[in-house]
Amino acid sequence: MVESMVDVEVVYAAVDRQALLSVAVPVGTTVRAALQKSGIAEAFTELNLTDCAVGIFGKVIADPDTRPVQAGDRIEIYRHLLADPKEVRRLRAAKAAEAKARNQ
């Protein structure tokens, strides 16, 4: 009997390059297993697929080890943030307010 397959995409953007890979996996394959089957870890050796945050179409997946993929899913691998965007905006606003107060 032929096993049913679904096509998914795996995407990752490093600082200097990016990749979009298409992979066919058996129905019921988990997100983490699809990532491993894609071969993305060989292309980006700095990637640790066991603890990286992943999502599907911009929505973070809480447990990629149990969530099965669906046909057409776009699995995204997220890099760790270097700085918290909220904190950066807060500091920038404080600096602008300080500069404005000095100019008055």
TrEMBL record:
<protein>
    <recommendedName>
        <fullName>UPF0125 protein CUN61_00965</fullName>
    </recommendedName>
</protein>
<dbReference type="InterPro" id="IPR005346">
    <property type="entry name" value="RnfH"/>
</dbReference>
<dbReference type="InterPro" id="IPR016155">
    <property type="entry name" value="Mopterin_synth/thiamin_S_b"/>
</dbReference>
<dbReference type="Pfam" id="PF03658">
    <property type="entry name" value="Ub-RnfH"/>
</dbReference>
<comment type="similarity">
    <text>Belongs to the UPF0125 (RnfH) family.</text>
</comment>
<dbReference type="InterPro" id="IPR037021">
    <property type="entry name" value="RnfH_sf"/>
</dbReference>
